[in-house]
Amino acid sequence: MKRVLFVVAAVLFILSCNGMPPVDTGQLFCMATCKNGKCEKKDGVWLCIVTTPVTCPAQCPSGQICTDPKLGCVPKPVTCAEIVCPQIGDPTTATVCVNTPSVGAMCVDPVVVSPTTCDPACKANEKCVVRPGVEKVYECVVVLDPVVAPLIPDEELTLVKPPGSSQMWAETDAAIKRYQTIHPEKWMDRSGLQCLSAGPSGIDEAFLAISTELLRQTIVAGQSISQSGQRSDCIFVNRTGGNLYEEMHIFDYSRACAATTSGAYKQLYKRSTGSVPPPDPPPCPALPCPLKTYPDGKAHWKFNSKPHTMGNADSTPVTVAQEPFCAATGQSPMAEGTLKASCPMRKEGDPDRAAVENWLLDGGPVRDSKDGGNCEPNNTTNPYAFLMRGGNCRNCNTGKTVCTDWW
Considering only CA atoms, which of 219, 205, 131 is closest in space to residue 173? Predict the structure, then answer.
């Protein structure tokens, strides 16, 4: 301290000898002694103001993160691992998820580039894309053809009584929740209910998105439309495999809040024959894929079945007269050189086997009973196993057009 006072006195002496105007000694003293702060004059007194550096908290509350000390803890950005981008082609949606440093995950439209930029090459149902805003980052993504839910003409619908209970609410509710997950910005919480941010004016857009999502699940759905162009205040959801449609009132028109129970189902309608457009068949999930049918529609494959263990039979879908496919999957020729034209969809343990089998069977195997009895297998979750019960059980594809023998 003595040294500081000496330095201040010396400075004052030098300035006075050189004819300089008087200096504020308090300021000089503050400047000489203030090491970790800034000198400021308050009420005529010079003070050393020490500023504490702003840092992020040691721990943020659950679901929050701190990356900027000035902002503190803010909601953690959603990542692509937490959302599912829609695989539909209307202009308001996209097909690729990109993690951005500013807002987290975003669903964006892919920019299609040459397949040679992806290594390894993309599968038949994929395209090579470059992520927008991320230079030279290419990846294979499934890009499905555009699908837009149809409008159903009023004159094709006839009321059916009694309506009975809903058979399609679970699928409709799942489509609503998917729309909420994909587009959280279009929703807001009102006393525990999920309501559209745009209010009633956003209902038609929501109907389109929900109906389109149902269509992606091969469930035909949509608003009805009158000859004058008036759209219904509900959507009609097809009961799978027939011409009956459930009238679903998903939104109330006062606050545009979404229904949460099957009470949204009001009436049952029959649609005139031949007006239901069949959904496009799903693409083969992995190449190579076998032929499903011959030109005349007959199945190009069959089930092999045999007795197994614990009173069960086991079954395997195999190709019929498709040696090129068996060769492409490494199952032909056999070890002794014999060509093999009937083979499973993949070798045992291949990660694509289950997906191709489900595609071939239009959804997976279905157990069938001749006498209405139980065909569940003993002590196994294998979907291709079934109980051997005196010739009363078998396994089939979803439409029961191809089946095993009765066991």
Answer: 219
